[in-house]
């Protein structure tokens, strides 16, 4: 692995001075379709995941089970995501990005649409497990398609735009519960994604296959599965990185609405409005920090975003007024999701070329899985330290760990993804 910043900068310079390197065939002139499909698919991925969270009560009543049984299906979905990353990521490295991406989007969208029509709870659980496989396969394929298709000088920006898509998908789900559900019923929430899935499939059909994917395509599935074993240290490092980043994200988001309700006695409407506000901060953070990473470096920008998060903690956890809490939560999510804005570019640049869908996809999903218990740990700390100090202690520890991981970790900003 070449970690030389000078060589990375030379690669960027070559790409900037030779636009033909990114469009050496007529098909590559349509790279915008590829980037758009990859980003839109990630928005859809988030939308289909979060709509279930908004209709837990309706699903529990529909299947005649307790709410806890519906919430457990979320854990099952998270558990099956790495399976999808392996299966669909391997297909993308063997056959190219486009066809597996279309298959992945249609797969998880169809099982999303089937969810409310399951004849019983057992079938519902089966649908959610299969949905998780499709959902888990998307990030690795979508990120590799976007990173390989976009011009190198814009890689950081598109990295941020793609990752911002997850927060945007959450916001769209929140909008859908206020618009679609009152007019058409809660089941239409699950059907709405099919229209977006059709658009993603159309954009992908119009997209060129990335030159990088063609040139580095593996000869067999055996070769694909062997390659990650040759990069065990890089794989372990990136899984650790993504696990701690997941703890950072879940630790600042999942319990915060309950914190606002329990500690500050805010109404549901006020909390909902604050949620929209800090998700806007999350989107902005992804865009700004992702774009800056092209100039300042991936690790430097992750640490910059972490610094912003540290500065926001007093207002975020100890704010005494609604205005201060709003400012703190907005700034916190700007920093937290700013870290995520760097992730697509950083992981793709550090991944072996022949498994650029499988490798970062599995890393990402394992990080999500291993970091999921963080919320339970944080909630348990609440009993000993109180809510504000529990949130603060957990995030300070997580941020300190990320500083160390990034400070001594590798980086290949500007790497030529085609070679």
Write up what this structure looks like.
The protein is an all-alpha fold and 419 residues long. It has a single domain, classed as Up-down Bundle (Growth Hormone, Chain: A), CATH 1.20.1250. The chain is 80% helix and 0% strand. The chain is built from 19 helices and no strands. Helix 2 packs antiparallel against helix 6, helix 5 packs antiparallel against helix 9 and helix 12 runs antiparallel to helix 16. The longest helix has 30 residues. The two termini are 13 Å apart.
Topology:
Elements: H1 5-17, H2 31-54, H3 56-63, H4 67-95, H5 98-114, H6 121-149, H7 155-184, H8 187-191, H9 193-205, H10 211-215, H11 221-226, H12 232-253, H13 256-264, H14 268-296, H15 298-318, H16 322-350, H17 358-371, H18 374-385, H19 387-407
Helix pairs in contact: 2-5, 2-6, 2-7, 2-9, 3-4, 4-5, 4-6, 4-17, 5-6, 5-9, 6-17, 7-14, 7-16, 12-16, 12-17, 12-19, 14-15, 14-16, 15-16, 15-19, 18-19
